[in-house]
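Question (not urgent): is this output format expected?
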Amino acid sequence: MRRGRAAVRGLWALPPAVALGLVFLYPLALVVKQSFTPDTGGVSLAPYRQVLATEVFREALVTTVWLAVGSTAGCLVLGFALALVIAFVPFPGARAVAKFIDVFLSFPSFLITLALLFVYGSVGMANGLWTDVTGATEGPFQFLTTPWGVLLAEITYFTPFVVRPLLAAFSQLDTAQLEVASSLGAGPGRIVRRIILPEALPALTAGGGLVLVLCLNEFGIVLFTGAKGVTTLPTLIYGKAIFESDYPSACVVAVVSVALSTGLHTLYRMAGRRAGA
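Got this back:
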């Protein structure tokens, strides 16, 4: 009887497994296979040796990692501060701000970058106001086409991915602990360090891990900022495949990107278990 039920459960799991194999695993296997297939044919490690030895790949790898780590750190700090204000500082419109964050999560990344271009771009509002006031030929805000502009855009876009789980964690926090600590003379800083931060650690770990993986694979923000000197692994894959038609090299970079994301996701899962996320 138990074997029959186990067999039925196995049949129910078969369609999702087949769909996963066709939609994800099979294309991924083709990418891995192509990465070992040079243009001359056969199976070889030559594409890996060729790509990994280039300066462009090393710069793209370093840029991708530091942008992802920097964006994650910025999102954690800014997201924690915003969540604290929304959850514990009473002000008119707090509920509307929380609802807006939910809507913000559905925005495409290029839309936020486009908004920043309207404000801080070369012909944006800030530079236009500066030239009107001072009579200069160009404004001082030229950072959007640099790595710092990409960093600002990623922090702006991904911070709500940290705020949302923090708000959910703060909603379950027993406010009686805060009232008791305050009545005993604890200041706001000590309350945050001793009571709120330990409770928020699992949510911070979950949000930070999600932002880190998303930033590693972000393509639209880098593309729409027009940062010519900023090359990340996704943009390198795009350039190799579209402009150079070098599909083996593009697949090599894609395999490295997948391995990097998978490795960091594994570390995030391990940290999440320790933090109780």
